[in-house]
Design brief:
This protein has 152 residues and is mainly alpha-helical. It contains five helices and no strands. Helix 2 runs antiparallel to helix 3.
């Protein structure tokens, strides 16, 4: 990869900001879907940070390939955001469960991450949430491609 592809650009910034916004909007849509006793803490902020990172590295690094390809790049960035957000929240819950001595060893704790992710995934099967994430990811990809063509 040429050095210029690793440099900051306006397209990377737009990709990061757009997925960061999608992370916030998605987080707000997930809150009512979770059980009422759920303590969210830094939930939105962690997902925004993950959105910024996924936008910068996943979408922003693949700009300049055309508008058709930018749709799939945007969907890839959105899928990466959902994956890492699910992993981060599941890992956080596993740490809390470990402090409560729910697991007998480290292997059980690692398996607990995946069990927590599967439990969280059940709450994410919501049509408005899925549509928002898909459309938001596509818009992020298209917007990034537009900025890459316009200001590069």
């Amino acid at each position: 990869m040429p050095k210029s592809h690793r440099m900051p650009s306006s397209a990377r910034l737009i990709a990061a900001v757009s997925l960061g916004v999608l992370g916030w909007v998605g987080s707000e849509m997930v809150r009512p879907l979770m059980p009422p006793h759920t303590a969210f803490g830094w939930f939105n902020y962690v997902n925004v940070a993950l959105g910024l990172l996924c936008g910068w590295f996943v979408i922003g690094s693949r700009t300049g390939r055309g508008y058709v390809e930018s749709v799939s790049i945007g969907l890839t960035g959105g899928a990466a955001l959902v994956f890492w957000a699910l992993f981060a929240q599941s890992f956080n819950l596993m740490l809390k469960q470990s402090l409560d001595r729910k697991f007998k060893g480290p292997i059980e704790a690692i398996v607990g991450i995946f069990n927590n992710a599967l439990e969280y995934l059940q709450f994410l099967w919501d049509t408005p949430l899925i549509v928002t994430l898909v459309i938001g990811s596509i818009v992020a990809g298209l917007l990034t491609e537009f900025v890459a063509r316009r200001w590069t």
